[in-house]
C-alpha cells in the first residue's frame, strides 16, 4: 500500500502481477578452438559470418583446420559462433614490432596479435596537428599493406593529435591499446619527445626485417596442451569461461594429419558437462586408413574413446564417422578430407531453426552442402554395427546425396541403455535446464512460502505450455506432456528453515523414429466390394 495516507482522497498503487516470463536460450551457439593466422589469443570472439571470421582471424589457412570448420559451419546453416585462437610459441616474440624514433629514444609498436601477418604493417608519423606549437602532439597512420613493404593498404587506422605526455587525455599508449585493432604499444616514447616525421615498415619487399622492425612468427603446430589449456590462466577450452553461453563445442584436428588425443576429448567433455553444452567428436582419420578393416577399427575405436571419456561424460558428447570429401579452395579446389564437426554443427543450427532443438539433426533434411563424397562408403549392415555402439554415421544415398544418418549420443550404445541415448533428447534437456536456470534467478531471496511457489508454478508452467504448443513434448494434453511441482511436499519446513526451495519439473521428450518397420501381408481369399 502507499507509504503514508495523509489526505482524504483516492490513492493509486501498482500491484505486481507475479508474471515473470521465461525466455528460451539459444540452442546452437557453437564454440571453435584452434589455430589461426591472427586474432586475439585465448579469448572467445563472437563471429556471425565467415567474412567476419576472415577479417578477425585471417580466413582459410593451409596449416590449420580451424578456418575450414568455421567456413563449413556457416555454409551449412550456422549463424552464431565463438572462436578461440590458441598459439604454440612465445606470443610476445611472435608479434612483429615497429620502432618510431625520437630525439632521445623510441616509441615501439607491436602487432596486436602474433603472426606473420604483422610483417605487412607500416606506420607514418606527421606533426600537422591542431596545435603545431605543441611539440608533444603528432598524427599516426597505421596500415596493413598487401604484402611486406607493399604499396597498397588493405586496412588503415588514423590517430590524430595523440601525445607522448602521460597526462594528456590523448596519450598515445592509451589510445592505441584501447582503440587500435592493428597495433599496441610495447615501449613508451620519452614523455618529452614525440616521434620524428617518417614512414617505417616492419619488413622489406623481400620479407626481411627493416632497420625499424622485427618480424612476427606464426608459431609451431598446436598440440593437445594448447587445447586442454589451463583453468587458472583461462587458456584453451577454459578461455570459454569468458563466454556467457555456448551450446556446441567443435575442436577440429590439430593439423591436417594430427588428431586429438583421447585425453583431450575427455577434458573437453567434462567442461561441456559443466557448461551444459554438447561436444562434437570427429572420428580419427586413421579409422579409414585401411578400408578392409575400417568398420572393425571404428567399432573398437569408439568403444575405446567412450572408455577414455567415461560413461558419465559421454551423455554430453556425440561422434560422427567417416570424414567429408570436399573441394579445398586453397588447393585449386582439389578434393580433400575434412573433419565433419563444423558442417554437422551447422546442420544442427539449421534444424533448430526449421524444426526445433527437439528434432533430431539427421535424415533427408540433414544433407551436406558441397560435399563430393565421404572418406568411406558403408552399407546398411555396416551402419547397423556402428549405430548400436553409439557412433553416428554419415551416409551417401542416390538422389538424396550425403546425409547425417545417426542421432545418438556417445552414451547411446544399446548395451548401456542410457536415458540419454538420443541426441535430440539430451540437447532438449540441456535447453530446458539452461532456460529454467536463467529464468528463475528472480526467485533468490524471495519469501519462501506458498505465494512464491504459486508464482514459480505459474511462470514455469507458462514456459512449458508454450513449448507444448510448438510440439516439443509427447502427449495429447499438457497433463501427459509435462508437470511443475513446487509446494509443501517438495519444500518441507526443514527446507524453508535452511533457505531452500525445491522445484520439480518433469517432461516427456520426443524420441526420434530411428527404426521404421513396415509390415506387408498378402491377403488370401475374396475381398468384398
CATH fold-level topology of the largest domain: Rossmann fold
CATH architecture of the largest domain: 3-Layer(aba) Sandwich
Low-confidence stretches: none
- In total, the number of strands is 21
Straight-line N-to-C gap: 78 Å
CATH class category label of the largest domain: Alpha Beta
The average pLDDT value, as a whole number, equals: 94
Write down the overall geometry: flat
**Structural class by helix and strand composition:** alpha+beta
Number of domains in the coordinates?
3
Strand content: 15-25%
What would you note in describing this structure?
Residues 418-522 form the Tail sheath protein C-terminal domain. Belongs to the myoviridae tail sheath protein family. This is Phage tail sheath family protein. The protein has 529 residues and is of the alpha+beta class. Helix content is 25%, strand content 20%. The chain folds into 3 domains: 1-22 and 446-529, no CATH class; 30-87 and 221-424, Rossmann fold, CATH 3.40.50.11780; 97-214, Immunoglobulin-like, CATH 2.60.40. The protein has an 8-stranded mixed sheet, sandwiched between helices. The longest helix is centred in the last third of the chain and has 20 residues, at 450-469. The relative contact order is 0.11.
Topology:
Layout: E1 30-34, E2 45-47, H1 50-57, H2 66-75, E3 81-85, E4 97-101, E5 106-111, E6 121-126, E7 137-145, E8 153-163, H3 172-179, E9 183-187, E10 198-201, E11 213-214, H4 224-228, E12 248-250, H5 262-274, E13 278-282, H6 294-309, H7 311-314, E14 317-321, E15 324-328, E16 334-338, H8 341-354, E17 373-374, H9 380-387, E18 392-397, E19 401-404, H10 423-439, H11 450-469, H12 478-481, E20 482-485, H13 493-497, E21 504-507
Parallel strand pairs: 1-3, 1-12, 12-13, 13-14, 14-18
Antiparallel strand pairs: 2-3, 4-5, 4-11, 5-9, 6-7, 6-10, 7-8, 15-16, 15-17, 18-19, 20-21
Helix pairs in contact: 1-2, 2-8
Amino acid at each position: 500500500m502507499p507509504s503514508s495516507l495523509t489526505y482524504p482522497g483516492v490513492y493509486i498503487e501498482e500491484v505486481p502481477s507475479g508474471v515473470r516470463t521465461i525466455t528460451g536460450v539459444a540452442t546452437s551457439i557453437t564454440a571453435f578452438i584452434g589455430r589461426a593466422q591472427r586474432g586475439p589469443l585465448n579469448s572467445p570472439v563472437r563471429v556471425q559470418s565467415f567474412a567476419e571470421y576472415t577479417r578477425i582471424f585471417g580466413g582459410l589457412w593451409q596449416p590449420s583446420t580451424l578456418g575450414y570448420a568455421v567456413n563449413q559451419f556457416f555454409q551449412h546453416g550456422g549463424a552464431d559462433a565463438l572462436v578461440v585462437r590458441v598459439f604454440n610459441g612465445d606470443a610476445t616474440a611472435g608479434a612483429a614490432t615497429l620502432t618510431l624514433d625520437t630525439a632521445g629514444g623510441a616509441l615501439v609498436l607491436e602487432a596486436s596479435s602474433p603472426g606473420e601477418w604483422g610483417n605487412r604493417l607500416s606506420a607514418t608519423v606527421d606533426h600537422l596537428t591542431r596545435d603545431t606549437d605543441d611539440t608533444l602532439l603528432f598524427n599516426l597512420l597505421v596500415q596493413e599493406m598487401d604484402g611486406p613493404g607493399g604499396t597498397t593498404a588493405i586496412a588503415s587506422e588514423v590517430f590524430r593529435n595523440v601525445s607522448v605526455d602521460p597526462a594528456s587525455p590523448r596519450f598515445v599508449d592509451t589510445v592505441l591499446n584501447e582503440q587500435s585493432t592493428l597495433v599496441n604499444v610495447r615501449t613508451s616514447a620519452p614523455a618529452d619527445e614525440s616521434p620524428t616525421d617518417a614512414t617505417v615498415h616492419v619488413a622489406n619487399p623481400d620479407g626481411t626485417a627493416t632497420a625499424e622492425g622485427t618480424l612476427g612468427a606464426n608459431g609451431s603446430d598446436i598440440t593437445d596442451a594448447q587445447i586442454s589449456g589451463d583453468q587458472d590462466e583461462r587458456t584453451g577450452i577454459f578461455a570459454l569461461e569468458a563466454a556467457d553461453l555456448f551450446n556446441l563445442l567443435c575442436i577440429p584436428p590439430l593439423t591436417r594429419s594430427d588428431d586429438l588425443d583421447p585425453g583431450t576429448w575427455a577434458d573437453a567433455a567434462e567442461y561441456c558437462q559443466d557448461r551444459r553444452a554438447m561436444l562434437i567428436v570427429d572420428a580419427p582419420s586413421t579409422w579409414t586408413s585401411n578400408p578392409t578393416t575400417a568398420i572393425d577399427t571404428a567399432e573398437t575405436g569408439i568403444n575405446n574413446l567412450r572408455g577414455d571419456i567415461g560413461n558419465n561424460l559421454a551423455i554430453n558428447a556425440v561422434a560422427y564417422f567417416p570424414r567429408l570429401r570436399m573441394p579445398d579452395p586453397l588447393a585449386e579446389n582439389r578434393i580433400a578430407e575434412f573433419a565433419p564437426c563444423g558442417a554437422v554443427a551447422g546442420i544442427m543450427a539449421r534444424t533448430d531453426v526449421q524444426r526445433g532443438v527437439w528434432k533430431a539433426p539427421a535424415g533427408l533434411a540433414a544433407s551436406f552442402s558441397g560435399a563430393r563424397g565421404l572418406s568411406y562408403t558403408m552399407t546398411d549392415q555396416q551402419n547397423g554395427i556402428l549405430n548400436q555402439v553409439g557412433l553416428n554415421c554419415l551416409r551417401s544415398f542416390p538422389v538424396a546425396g550425403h546425409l547425417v544418418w545417426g542421432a545418438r549420443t556417445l552414451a547411446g550404445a544399446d548395451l548401456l541403455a542410457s536415458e540419454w541415448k538420443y541426441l535430440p533428447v539430451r540437447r532438449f534437456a540441456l535447453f530446458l535446464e539452461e532456460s529454467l536456470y536463467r529464468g528463475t534467478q528472480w526467485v533468490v531471496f524471495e519469501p519462501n512460502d506458498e505465494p512464491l511457489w504459486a508464482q514459480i508454478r505459474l511462470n514455469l508452467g507458462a514456459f512449458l505450455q508454450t513449448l507444448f504448443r510448438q510440439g516439443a513434448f509427447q502427449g495429447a494434453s499438457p497433463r501427459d506432456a509435462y508437470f511443475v511441482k513446487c509446494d509443501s511436499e517438495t519444500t518441507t519446513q526443514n527446507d524453508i528453515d535452511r533457505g531452500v526451495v525445491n522445484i520439480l519439473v518433469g517432461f516427456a521428450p520426443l524420441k526420434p523414429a530411428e527404426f521404421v518397420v513396415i509390415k506387408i501381408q498378402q491377403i488370401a481369399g475374396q475381398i468384398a466390394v
